[in-house]
Design a protein that fits this description.
alpha+beta, Glutaredoxin, two-stranded antiparallel ribbon, 9 strands
Length: 168
């Protein structure tokens, strides 16, 4: 499992972006994790699935709500990563009204989740291999803090916890 001090794995996530006004949506577009984190501080949180109860009611809204606070604490971007396809993540972004506050990034084949060692096997519940629920502060591609939830929990990966760590 990835730990504090490790470099994020080289992986490509996918992003599906809405265009303001009458434009068409754009994507999916590849996001090279190594290039996208270079020289930046990223508040990254991952979760088992888009549109799931805890993720939609608590996890994403907390990060959207605290966007300005994260910026003030020196965070360049907030990323939400889930083992869903880019089209689902785009629809979820629209539903959650994330706008430009939270980048909704798809890990469709769970390659990023597998590379970090933070997978969650939900095959018994019909959801297959997913990402565990966690948050991390990433500085220039390296893990500065890591908060991994226990099974079925939502106690340490929330926006308030990661924000406190970003404020240091």
């Amino acid at each position: 499992m990835i730990k504090v001090g490790d470099t994020l794995p080289s992986a490509t996530l996918q992003e599906y972006s809405e265009v303001e006004g009458e434009g068409c949506s754009i994507g999916p577009n590849p996001v090279d994790v190594t290039k996208a984190t270079a020289g930046k501080t990223i508040a990254l949180f991952a979760l088992p699935g888009a549109f799931t109860p805890t993720c939609s009611a608590k996890h994403v809204p907390g990060y959207v709500q605290h966007f300005d606070d994260f910026k003030a604490a020196g965070v360049d971007e907030i990323w939400c990563v889930s083992v869903n396809d880019a089209f689902v993540m785009g629809a979820w972004a629209r539903d959650q009204k994330t706008g430009t506050k939270v980048r909704m990034l798809a890990d469709g084949s769970a390659d990023f989740a597998k590379a970090t060692g933070l997978t969650l096997d939900l095959t018994g519940r019909g959801m297959g291999l997913r990402s565990n629920r966690y948050s991390m502060l990433v500085k220039d591609g390296k893990v500065a803090t890591l908060n991994v939830e226990g099974p079925g929990k939502f106690e340490v990966s929330d926006a308030d916890t990661l924000l406190a760590q970003a404020r240091g």
